[in-house]
Structure formats: C-alpha cells, structure tokens
C-alpha cells in the first residue's frame, strides 16, 4: 500500500498517460472491484436522476394468484416490485419475467405499458430459464475466481461462451496469472464454497446499459474485456451500448437475461480447470463447473455422476476466435427455441 | 375384422344380472342396455367386468356402422338390435361414425376406478367413447422433460449408452450417408479386430522370446 502511494507521488509531475499506465498495473483485484462498483453506482444514480418527474405505467399481470392490473412508476419499478404486490412467494421463486413477450430481468425497470408474467424452473417449457440460470452460473463463477486468489495473482476474466445446458458444464475462460496450476480436489472444493455461500447472501442481479466510453473506463484494468467492448457494442440493439450486470460486488459484461438473485442457486461446484492453448495468453484456463437451482431436487448419487461428467473439457468456442461472449443471442424466446 | 382392443375369447356369463336364472338372455339384455347407455351418454360407469364386456360389442357396432354405412340393410339390422332407444340409430350413423372417420386406434377407452371402501364390493370401471365432450378422466400430466435436472440426466444417459455401445454399432450410427453399406463396415471392422489380434499375438510371441532368452 505504502509503496504504491510513493510511486504515485513520484510520478505526480509526469504526463497523465504515464500516470494512468502505472496505476493500472499496480492495482489488485480487490481495488479494481471497488473502483468498478463506484463507477457502477455513479452511473446508476445518474440514470435514475434522469426521471425527475415520476410517470406511471399500466402493467397487466396474468398468472397466479389472480390476473390483475397494476399502476407502477416508469423507469423505477421492476417486475420484482410488481411481485411484491402479489405474494412474497412469487417474488422469491420467479426467475425471469416476460414483458410484452420479451425476456426481462426481475430487477430491470419497466419502461412502458406492458403485459407481465413470470417464469419459473418448473414451467412446462423452462428452456429459456435454464439458459439464464446457466449464464448466471458462468457469471458467478467469474466472480468467485476474481475473489478466490491471493493479491499477488492478478486475475483477468476473458469471456464465457453461450450457455449450453446439454454440454453438462458452465464455463469461464480466465487468465489466472499462473503458468502451471493443477488444483487438487480440496482446493477446488474450497473455491466452490465461495460460490455456494452466495445462497445466504441473496445478492440480486442488477442490470445497467451504458455507453462504450463508460464501459471502457470501467474495464480499463482488464485487457481482454477492453478489447471485446467495441465488438459487443456493435452487436447491441442501439449499436453503441454495453450491458453490464452486477451481483453483490462482482461486475461483468453480458447480454443477459440473468436470474433474479443468487438465492436461487443451491449447489455450486467447480469441477475442473483445463489449460488452453490460445494466442491470447500463455496463462489462459478454462474453468468448468456445475450448479443446481433451489427449486429442483436431485439425488446426491445422480449429482455426483453429473459432476463427473462436467469434468470433461467443454467443447464450446475457445477465446480468441470471433464470437467471444454470449453476444449473438437474441432475447426473443421464439427464436431461441427454434435454435434449440 | 379384428377389434383394436384386447379381448377374451370366452364370454363372461353374467348369471343373475336380472335375478336368479335370468340366463344368457339376461346377459344379452344387460349388454344391450349398456351399449345403448354408452351411445346415449358417451361415458358410463359400471363394474369393470361389465364395462369390459360392453366394450367389445360397442366397438363392433361402430365398426360395422362405419364400414357399411346407413344405406346397408345388415348394418341397419345390427344397429336396430343393439340400440334399444331408436333415436340413437340416427346419432350412431350421423354423429359417431363421422367422428371416427380418420381414427386409427380403438373407438372407446376403458378406465379402472379406485376401490371404494365400504362400497359395492366389486372393481368399478368407466367406459367412454373417445372424443366425447366431458372433462378428461385422467388429468393431463405436466411436462417435465425440459427441467434443468432432467435435461442434464438425459444427456448423461445418452453419453453412457454411447460409450457402452459396441464400436461396430457406433460406426454405423456415425456414417451420415443415405445408403449405409453395412457389409463393408462389418468387413472393415473384422479386419481391424484381426489386425489388433495379430499385433497382440506378435507381442505375446515377442515376450515369450524374451523370456526364452
């Protein structure tokens, strides 16, 4: 800490570019996380302050316990707030919302008059929910990896591929800053425990759209994300926005949608770490895991078989090839089912 | 003509359905009443044995009616015999026969009801015509195929079978060509296995040689 302050003082008179260069190299993962959270909070407050005068939207809810019409605040109220007007159970159990036929995060503000219904893990066709869960598990895996190691290792998350439940494992490709690391089963279990403890923490997933400049400022300390941001933005709906999610203190880029909270995550296991041969870095690893939602029960023997299966190297796209994060997915359910 | 339902070659006797000594004519009378009731109400509840016996006659009646049509003398006689209420002859030919025009399975459905205690003392059943307007006897089960756990376990099972299958079968399944030449694959497979065995033999021979040395 002292050493870094000294270096900053020494280079105070140098041009700004140099100062920036030094500060980015010296930050640890914890400090980067704090910095990103401050930026996220500031941007969120800025976007909220745009709604000076509260306008109302009409939400027509269909589903249990009874269909009804709600008058909510535009740009402030979320589907979760709508659920609070019904029963506590719905708010706790719903994974995603369906707003005007589009998949919508539970904590994303409503923007217009809409039809609303909720999606669960035990629906007739929960494939979209499963995908969102798998994606959220990848997101959480990234957060776990960033917090798990000592400060001397600077972890840089690279990307996670499109969620594919049938492959048996969710994936995060990450630069671990170690050339040879083959973790023991005890080490893997210790890291997994960080993820499984999130169930009690009940961190909700917050979504924020931001411009390319803001996103680049947020991810200056991660060279992979910084590189990906322009291509991600070019594939977004408005062509210059990046969607960022936050759960607890972890922030990552993803197109979404994500599940409601980490309380829906019951079992979480990191099963295998594979070294990758890529042009991006010599210290790139593919970390794989498997998780189960709270609402679905599974016998421990069956779960053990699934964990064993998830240890195989996931055949998803390697980082460094063209489509890096899950940016090519559409948010309309009909199209995605056709892909399935 | 064969019925599309399982049935026994020996008829149930139903002795005493109309009191002691009602005999075979009593049986026929009871069955005619049941068939009439079935065509009238499209769903009847009775003892399981009686429903099962009625089922065969009802299937036969509808089959004859749909095969010969309402202008046939034989079909008309059969309908006249089995349907005690004569307005149902019209319903049979004009409503029920057109309903099963493109039907490939049986016309009726039989369910066994749970035992009731204290109750009648016999197994009870429900016999219904398919495509009736009543609510379903067995409620529709929820689809659980796409639950996250079920999808994962399903893939696990598939992978298990893939690894356990013989390499010969795997090779056939892997070939995507339209005309699969099984003989050539088999010959190739046999050759491969022979080569493997030969290698094994030679290895064994070598090892023996080494021992001899």
Automatic annotation (TrEMBL), chain A:
Major subcellular location class: mitochondrion
Gene Ontology cellular component list: mitochondrion; ribonucleoprotein complex; ribosome
Location of the protein in the cell: Mitochondrion
Ranges where the record places region Disordered: 315-340
One BP term from GO: threonyl-tRNA aminoacylation
Keyword Ribosomal protein: yes
Pfam family, one: TGS
GO terms assigned for molecular function: nucleotide binding; threonine-tRNA ligase activity
UniProt keyword list: Mitochondrion, Protein biosynthesis, Ribonucleoprotein, Ribosomal protein
Domain TGS: start-end pairs: 77-118
Family named by the database record: Belongs to the mitochondrion-specific ribosomal protein mL39 family.
Record's protein name: Large ribosomal subunit protein mL39
Organism from which the protein derives: Mytilus coruscus
Automatic annotation (TrEMBL), chain B:
GO cellular component terms listed in the entry, alphabetical order: mitochondrial large ribosomal subunit
Signal peptide range in chain numbering: none
GO MF terms, alphabetically ordered: structural constituent of ribosome
A biological-process GO annotation: translation
Composition-biased stretches (Basic and acidic residues): 198-213
Keyword Ribonucleoprotein part of the UniProt annotation: yes
Keyword field: Ribonucleoprotein, Ribosomal protein
One Pfam match: Ribosomal_L17
Residue numbers spanned by region Disordered: 193-213
SUPFAM superfamilies according to UniProt: Prokaryotic ribosomal protein L17
UniProt-listed InterPro entries: Ribosomal_bL17, Ribosomal_bL17_sf
Family from the record: Belongs to the bacterial ribosomal protein bL17 family.
PANTHER family in alphabetical order: LARGE RIBOSOMAL SUBUNIT PROTEIN BL17M, RIBOSOMAL PROTEIN L17
Protein's name according to its UniProt entry: Large ribosomal subunit protein bL17m
Organism of derivation: Mytilus coruscus (Sea mussel)
